[in-house]
Amino acid sequence: MIKKIMIATLSVLVLGSCNKFLDRNSLVGLSEGDFWKSEQDAVTGINAIYNANREFTNSIVIYGMMDDFTDISYQSFATGLTTGVFPANASFYSTSWGIFYKGIYRANTALKKVPEIQMNESVKNRTLGEAAFFRGYFYFKLWDYFGGVPLYDYPMNVDESFKPRNTEKEVYAFIVKDMTDAYALLPGSYDAANKGRITKWAALAMRGKAHLWAKEYEKAAADFKELMEKSDRTLVGDYHTLFRVAGNNNSEVIFDVQYVAQQGNGLATDRNYGNARGATTGSQRTRPTPKLVNEYEMKDGTPFDFANFKNAQGTVFNPDNAADWKDEASVRKLFENRDPRLQKGIVVPWSTFNGKGGIDYLYRFPVVTSDPAAYVPVWTNGSYAWRKFVETGSVYTLQDNMPQNFPLIRLADVMLMYAEAKNESAGVPDQSVYDAVDAVRIRAGMPRLPAGLNKEQMRERIRHERMVELCGEGQRYSDIRRWRIARDVVDGVWMTEFTGVKIRQRGFPDNYYLWPIPQSERDVNPNLTQNPGW
């Protein structure tokens, strides 16, 4: 599979690893010497682009995931983007910028060199399609986070790397062209030896996503509709399986990052999402918020409300009273008959977690650290924990190197993006909007949406569905920024335990809608103007 091929690639190549885009080492890499002569050189060079993508995924999972910068999860240790005080010279920004431009340089090199190689025509088309896809993808990430950035369609030398920023509209058009080219060149599927490589469906999904971000709703809906109708992708029956090693390479994934259980080649999900009772003793660096948990509907589709539940004394359940959480019977009722995705994705009090030794540990509250059969979270004052991306039992023991593929686009995401684009482009949501959202809800075990929703009501339903379906996957950070609601739902809000205990106040000033152009890059390239407010 592609993940094994990429590991072999890293063992034979000396690749520029500096994070700064303008560092000379990152601008040479695979372009010199006797390389780019054979078909194997072409494939090896393309694999290096996949590794640049892995590098970014590794960094955001280590940090705790992009959702930590939103209202649905939070970073237990670091503050930074969660509190609104990250400086423009923070390494997080420059590291991301450097990784994206490293990948762009490698893609540009491949697009220049591969056409000159005498090789199998279908493999040549595939490698060119992969390079075009990744160049467009890295520019999409830059566009999403930084806005307009310099566009390079050639492998630039150091003295050619001082262009000013292109407009956001120009970057969007560049992405669309790359994804259109990739769609024409790439196959729809692969044999087992190449499973995990980019398909034409990933290119189509990313083109639709670029259209959606640009508010070109009819174009976005058309791309997503084509993917839903013509691709071989189908929803997986069990939601929880999607986020376990057993679900790798499933029928729903459209674009993911692949990993294996080898030191240095796995993913740190179990450390950062995991808990103290897991086989790898995770640090619970990222945690779901009470806001997210309370968003999960009742099984009949009605909103959850604490006012509908009683505590042990028979009065209204008060989530800010720690004593109310001590009564097992009362608390269990809070989580019964809820959207099944809740307990498939999150560990809640008085539920069980299958951890070390295959034991089902019970999450008692208050936490009983002395009980060997009790679930013990890292944070014991009233913390929800992720079940999503956390392996159960004791099969895997490499804390920072889980063989868990990380999904970047899956069919449920595409269906919800289609529903959003179609709803925004129409006066009244048509049946296809209902069908797309309902397919995601029905897979989860939830009822269909009620009929007769207007455009604004449907918009809120779609946004709710994206919140609970895609939580922990890093999608909400981009969603709330492109919807321009980030400041409303994040700024000034307190991160709390489920008992109401305050941890840290969040911050999202207006300038956070775009990241700052890294100061280290502006120091080298004076043509790079800064984003407003930084």
TrEMBL record:
InterPro entries in the record, alphabetically?
Answer: SusD-like_N, SusD_RagB_dom, TPR-like_helical_dom_sf
Where, per UniProt, does this protein localize? Cell outer membrane
Transmembrane portions of the chain = none
UniProt KW keywords: Cell outer membrane, Membrane, Signal
Q: Which PROSITE patterns does the UniProt record give?
A: PROKAR_LIPOPROTEIN
Give every SusD-like N-terminal domain span: 46-207
Q: Could you identify this protein by its name?
A: RagB/SusD family nutrient uptake outer membrane protein
Q: Which family, according to UniProt?
A: Belongs to the SusD family.
